[in-house]
Amino acid sequence: MAKFDLTDDTVVCIIGSGAGGGTLGNELAQRGIKVVILEAGGRYETQDFINDEWDSFTQLAWKDMRTTSGSWRVAHDFANLPAWIVKAVGGSTVHWAGASLRFQEHEFKTRTTYGALPGANLADWPITLAELEPYYTKAEFKMGVTGTNGIPRLPGNNNYKVLAAGAQKLGYKEFHSGNMAINSEPRDGRGACQQIGFCFQGCKSGAKWSTLVSEIPKGEATGNMEVRPKSMVLKIEHDAAGKVTGVVYIDDKGTTQRQKARVVAVAGNSIESPRLLLNSASSKYPDGLANSSGQVGRNYMRHMTGSVYATFEKPVHMYRGTTMAGIIRDEAHNNTKRGFVGGYEMETLSLGVPFMAAFLDPGAWGRSFTSAMDDYPNMAGMWLVGEDMARETNRVTLDKTAKDANGLAVASVHFDDHPNDIAMRNHGYAQGAAVYQSVGATRVFNTTPYPSTHNMGTNRMSEKPRDGVVNKFGQTHDIKNLFVSDGSQFTSGAACNPTLTIVSLAIRQAENMAGMMQRKEI
Amino acid sequence: MRDIDRRTTVSRRVFLRTTAAAPAAASLAVGIGISADAAWAADAKNLTPHVMATLVKVARDLFPHDNLADKFYITACAGYDALAADAGKKKLLTDGVAELDKAATAKFKEANYLAVNWEADRVSLLHGIEHTPFFAKIRGDLVVTLYNQKDLWPKFGYEGASADKGGYINRGFSDIDWLPTA
Fold it and tell me: Is B27 left (phi over 0), alpha (psi -120 to 50) or beta?
């Protein structure tokens, strides 16, 4: 396995090892480019994962302090946990459910399609679906997405069967067990899904694609990539000309180190990535790196989410089997007759008893709540995932008082639903209830959004430097050898789970970054 | 379809192992009821038996499951005695119980919270303190310490870890048999 010197200024230094950073690292390593990945979390392999919700949360979740504000209920119920994401090698691909969907064409052109929505800060992406399609194809092959490349779909579990029966009754047309980056048959050196049911806790069979089980070991095998776990980056440094020169980080022994680099790529998820750029402010860049537009941290998106759970007369056992292998896509299209722009997916979801108690209705107590828990085995569940509207005021900033263990300001996340988000969520709640009531639900629960698992948009792509942070290749408008490689690049969030698009962008970015390096542009 | 047996089948060994912080006496609580005279309450070192017993009663009133024996609520509250080694936490818990007792006397002319007979009446007292730090603390703790007990999961038809059993691929992941067919 490669080991690069701290003073080696020919390496590409990637901050974060998730969908963006892990994929970029492997793609560069395959092209013979030297890569150092700094990952804040520890390294846990497939056999280390725990089939227990709270124990797994303790092992994998990003629990470092963050603060919140705004009218979203998360700020009240989980004031220091705005997001449920991972701090470990593999990042949130360790925890993701595997749903791998492409954006629709209009979702790259939200400003053009939806118009100037009051209270929103919409912009078109500087790329189109047609430009990204070849990379979606590569990503689907790399990740082994079911329903693509001739890969059979997963068998539907009990929770899916309830969803599908309801969809059929309602006259929905497009529903199936999903496009999942989970092996339905052995592939790429990994086995088939065993229907374990703890997809969020790290897949213990290895059937689910993650950078931990795929990109990272493949990149390491080239001899061109080094991953350093428990390495928390504090600051990105630059020279007098303004080019970035490397990063300062705390290593696994608690020692402060400085890694030199030819290129720095930030991929710490949409909360840590803007935090790092802001915390790297200098006399040359007093508002933080790559922030001449003032857009770093702004336009934070988290999807219009919500869940619908329902109880039935007879058992469902929704927790058995692949958590999210089930989808209804009929509401994903842009149909303004429903009273909102954009659309949403309905995807199967289940929680175990410990998490159901914590998340069904946070803060609830008494018999209304406990009678719902009593019916847990008879419960089915779905998650609503819809496009939320970018707003300048939905924003990651540096907390004015709270500091982390290294004395750096923690991230503060402010979020208010746009009226369009609320209208869409109410529509989703009603349609979700109708799905379940059509097959005999006796009681339906509208569950409020969980701490964010999809975090997007805080360093967005834009055609013009004044409208965003990075260009169409994820290269910052302000600093040529500084890139953003995670979901914070997203100009819009679309109706679907973001990982496939993050991976596709990372493959495309690697290709372009390698070209720029070869041409000595960076 | 494969359903699971929701009757209590507590293995004493598992019970003690998963509740290391709980007084062993909790397993003897069946039939005694929630009372300051019970051994698990009397064994408390930092809190009085009365405070311990009241916390357990509050736990049941917050999260009432009539198919759960008291021992699950006793286990959920077991950590409070150790927590009360901290003077600030001890004051929060003791003052919170005192406030509930005072309200029980004022509203129902009873000696204390435990003496209020009807659940609905006790719940009305809990509503009266719903916005206090004491309430937020115990509700937030108990929703984890109650529902995170492994030996309680079968009572809710939940099977817990499955990877060690080969997942559900051959154990009923798709065995639902009552759905209407189109």
Answer: alpha
Cα distances from A46 to residues A120, B63, B145, in angstroms, run 42, 36, 28
- pLDDT for res B15: 43
Indicate whether B9 pLDDT > 60: no
Interchain contact, A352 vs B158, CB within 8 Å: yes
SS (H, E, C) A441-492: CCEEEEECCCCECCCECCCCECCCHHHCCECCCCEECCCCCEEECCHHHCCC
Q: How far apart are CA B155 and CA B148, in angstroms?
A: 12
Q: Cα separation of A456 and A487, whole Å?
A: 5
A381 and B CB contact within 8 Å: no
The residues near A25 (Cβ < 8 Å, ≥ 6 apart) are A14, A17, A35, A37, A215, A216, A219, A225, A227
- In terms of C-beta distances under 8 Å and separation of at least 24 residues, what long-range contacts does B114-119 make, across chains too? B114/B34, B114/B35, B114/B36, B114/B50, B114/B53, B114/B54, B114/B57, B119/B61, B119/B64
pLDDT score for B1: 86
Q: What is the pLDDT of residue B14?
A: 42
What distance, in Å, lies between the first and last C-alpha atoms of chain A? 26
pLDDT of residue B17: 41
**Two tokens, residue A177:** 């067990």
Which of B65, B162, B175 is opposite residue A197, by nearest beta carbon?
Answer: B162
Q: How far apart are CA A430 and CA A435, in angstroms?
A: 9
Answer whether residue B160 shows pLDDT above 60. Answer: yes
Residues of A with Cβ-Cβ distance to B153 under 8 angstroms: 352-353
pTM: predicted TM-score of the whole model, two decimal places: 0.96
Is residue B24 scored above 80 in pLDDT?
no
Tell me which of A245-254, A402-411, B3-12, B150-159 is least confident: B3-12
The share of chain B scoring above pLDDT 90, in percent, equals: 75
| Mean pLDDT (whole number) for B103-129 | 98
> H/E/C letters for each residue in A387-441?
CCCCCCCCEEEEEEEEECCCCCEEEEEECCCCHHHHHHHHHHHHHHHHHHHCCCC
Does residue A197 belong to the interface with chain B, where contact is any CB pair within 8 Å? yes
Residues of chain A with pLDDT under 50: none
- Mean pLDDT calculated for residue range B117-137: 97
Which chain B residue has the Cα nearest residue A168? Answer: B182
Answer whether A51 sits within 8 Å of B163, measured CB to CB.
Answer: yes
Query: Cβ contacts of residue A422 below 8 Å, gap of 6+?
Result: none
B18 pLDDT more than 50: no
Q: What is the pLDDT of residue B8?
A: 62
What's the gap between Cα B87 and its chain centre? Answer: 23
- Secondary structure (DSSP) of A24-89: HHHHHHHTT--EEEE-SSB---GGG--SSHHHHHHHHB--S--EEESSSTHHHHSTT-SB--B-BT
Backbone angles phi, psi at A112, to 5 degrees: -70, -40
Lookup: tokens for B104: 């029980």
